[in-house]
Amino acid sequence: MALLIFAVIGTLAGREEPRAQPIPDAGRKERARTGPKGHFPGPAPATVSVIVAAYARVQHIAREAHSRSVIMSTPFPLPPIVYHPAYSAPLSPGHRFPMQKYARLAQLLEKEGLIGPEGLHIPELASFDMLAAVHDPMYVRQVLDVAVPAHVERVIGLPVTLDIVTRSQAEVGGTLLAARLALRHGLACNTAGGSHHAGPKGGSGFCVFNDVGVVARLMIDTGEIQRALVIDLDVHQGDGTAFIFENEPRVFTFSMHGAKNYPTRRGPSDLDIDLPDGTGDEAYLAELRAQIPGLLEHVRPDLVFYNAGVDPHETDSLGRLALTDQGLLARDTYVLATCLPFAPVVGVIGGGYEDIDRLANRHANLHRASVDVWRHGLAGRGRA
Ligand SMILES: [Zn+2]
Q1: pLDDT score of 143
Q2: What's the 211 CA to ligand 1 centre distance in angstroms?
Q3: How many angstroms separate the alpha carbon of residue 2 from the centre of ligand 1?
Q4: CA torsion 144→353→258→227, rounded to 10°?
Q5: Residue 275 C-alpha to ligand 1 middle, in angstroms?
Q6: Which residues of 350-370 are buried (b: 16+ CB within 10 A; e: fewer)?
Q7: Residue 380's pLDDT is what?
Q8: ω into 24 cis (within 30 of 0)
Q9: Ligand 1 centre from 253 Cα, in Å?
């Protein structure tokens, strides 16, 4: 029965289908409307045992959590998805950062019918004040003025052009919008985000601004949340986020990553799990199951930030953990299904370095898993 609950994806009954339109072009600041039709593939057979186990655990946790929280019904038939046309900024041909994956991901989500009838949610750009609350104000000024010194640009690994600056501000704004949608509806995902190497001093490792860092800081400061848990499963350690919240007890940073991977200078996470090369699906998921429930009990977050980086994949050019596509989907489903009874979750896609189409398909797993848990009522703990 539990299997059926997770595997059966029904059609949306009684809903008028708006006319499908393509993903918006750069510069159009409006919500794209998309058709809800489309085939949504259920979990692959190999993930079933993991998912069933997760669901059994969740049912138990949910009964406890629901007794101490207010449940709201969500008005959306699908979890909100945040996208900005600036996410895929132009880069010179041959640059090793797969910048086009964001637009390709949005197109794929539209094709699979995973975007709700309200369309994609388009964020505002992050402001100087928001960014300077966690990053050196002089660095933020240089970036926004498109005047970053060459040696700083080299550390970032991207040319800091106006397009890249806009993209970086949009990404932070996107994670903020997704976080606020998550508080309201229980679950929401950005189609970018997870720039976790940017730290207090500045950018690094393809990351200009740390979207999760900026957003968690802002939401704590505004009182929107009291405590946050960062679950960072990108294959690289979340060093920037760890440094940003080194002395902030209200944000707990958990990073599980490849032991031999970038960065060489690690940040002081509240909990780091180093995994050996070639870990594989089974050992990886076992480690996750050993950590997440205890963290939720310990931290009792008002909001979980989930970095679902796909670079632990076996064919990723920068990852070394040998996870399969099925393993990554099982991971995302497990994290969402386990966290949601405790707290709203905002998902960001994190890293992934490979062919654009494969990457888009891999990043879509976060959104497929989101739809799955959403349709089974696990995302009901928003606070309206
Ligand atoms: Zn990474």
Answers
A1: 98
A2: 14
A3: 33
A4: 40
A5: 14
A6: bbbbbebebbbbbbbbbbbbb
A7: 66
A8: no
A9: 16
> Contact, 346 vs 82, CB < 8 A?
no
User: How many Å lie between the centroid of ligand 1 and the Cα of residue 344?
Assistant: 24
Distance CA 94, CA 67 (A): 54
**CA of residue 40 to ligand 1 center, whole Å:** 27
The CA 306 to ligand 1 mean position distance, Å, reads 13
Going from the Cα of 301 to the center of ligand 1, the distance in angstroms, rounded, reads 24
Lookup result for tokens 């600041």: 29
254 phi-psi bin (left φ>0, alpha ψ -120 to 50, beta other): beta
Domain boundary assignment for the chain: 64-375
* Regions of the chain where pLDDT drops below 50: 1-73, 382-384
Structure-block tokens of residue 11: 């059609």
The CATH code that applies to domain 64-375 is 3.40.800.20
Which residues, 6 or more positions from 242, have their beta carbon under 8 angstroms from its beta carbon? 253, 255, 266, 267, 268, 269, 270
